[in-house]
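Lay summary. Proteins are chains of building blocks that fold into shapes, and those shapes determine what they do. In this project we predict the shape from the chain. Here is one chain we studied, written as its sequence of building blocks.
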Amino acid sequence: EALAWCERGALRSAAVPLPGEAPGPMVLSFPDDVDIGTAEAGVEPQSQLLSKLTVLLGEYVAPPPGVESPRKGDPTAAKEKRALETLASRLELRRRSPGSVLFQTGAPSDEIMVLVEGTIVGEPGALGAARDIATSAIQERALGFGRGTFETGALLGEVDFFLGRPRCYTARAGPSGCQVAVLTRDTVSALEVEDAQLALLAQRVALRSVCLLADSTMGLFMK
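And here is the predicted shape, written in a compact code that computers can read:
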């Protein structure tokens, strides 16, 4: 019970919603549409966002259900936590005002986004004739055949990023705006040269996200 209490306290200090709870808003004094990392508003808000981002990234590399997680104090767990913190620090933190466009259909896919706060609304775009039927179906199912809402922890743009093709949908900040952490193609290229293990960790995060999407849409192609 004491351990559970400590874990809950750690999640709350990182502004992460507990299971069954809705994510609470984080009030920041930044102007709209600026890079949080360069805003002159002190280090505490950015520190909180980085802590939360580390936890969110960790969810994508956590052992699958039925596989025991490393115990606290285990050298492997400590090493992975440090790697997640380092990866989080390499992402660019940005705030976007309600309704503003994060990316549009047809734009270059040179960034992957992690939603840290707020919501993002996805709007399917007109797919080109070159797109295959399976990709079109997955996109439509993922966005609810019209408009879909991404919530805290969601990755956006990872499929188009790794396929090297233009964006296949438009993403707008939700009614209360959003905070996103952005992994650019330049950063990925730099990590591949500087720290191959860190680059691999970023790819593991993206791969788990793609697998979750594929799992949720598999029924679309099975009868």
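What the prediction tells us: The two ends are 46 Å apart (CA to CA).
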